[in-house]
Amino acid sequence: MIGVVLCVAFGVYQTTAEKVKKVEAIIMLGALRGSETRYFAVKNTFADSLELLDFNPNEVMIGREAHFLYEIASADPAGFTAVATRSKADGGDGKGTVTIDEAGRFGGTMQ
């Protein structure tokens, strides 16, 4: 009986932990969108590389294990899409994604 309860509790814990990590990605992508907006105000196009921006979420994670790898999937004068891909750190699958576009719309494959 205790084994069944522990299995259920562990499953709930894992699901909750992944949701918290997704929130981390949403916050970082929101900051990245702000950086893209500032870049657009000066260049009249969106940056196609994190290195062109004043904020790089991959550099913020120095010194700790990153839960996501961030990249600009596409960018042009009309818009951009940035992607956070879940790493295998802390039991991640290495495949789940969270995305954001120039309008602040979130998407991706993570629940």
* Overall average pLDDT: 87
Query: Which structural class do the helices and strands define?
Result: alpha+beta
Beta fraction: 15-25%
| First-residue to last-residue Cα separation | 30 Å
Rg over CA atoms, rounded to whole Å, is 16 Å
**Overall form:** elongated
Q: How many β strands by DSSP?
A: 4
Q: Describe the sheet with the most strands.
A: 4 strands, antiparallel
Strand order of the largest sheet: 1-2-3-4
Residues in helices, as a percent range: 40-55%
Helical segment count: 2
The unreliable regions are none
Tell me the number of structural domains: 1
Describe this structure in words.
The chain is α+β, with helices and mostly antiparallel strands. The protein has one domain. Helices cover 41% and strands 23% of the residues. It has 2 helices and 4 strands, in the order H-H-E-E-E-E. The chain has helices spanning 2-43, 57-60; strands at 68-76, 79-86, 97-101, 106-108. The chain has a 4-stranded antiparallel beta sheet with strand order 1-2-3-4, covered by helices on one side. The longest helix is centred in the first third of the chain and has 42 residues, at 2-43. The model has no long low-confidence stretch (mean pLDDT 87).
At a glance:
With 111 residues, the chain is of the alpha+beta class. 41% of the residues lie in helices and 23% in strands. Strand 3 and strand 4 (106-108) form a beta hairpin.
Write the layout of secondary structure elements.
Elements: H1 2-43, H2 57-60, E1 68-76, E2 79-86, E3 97-101, E4 106-108
Antiparallel strand pairs: 1-2, 2-3, 3-4
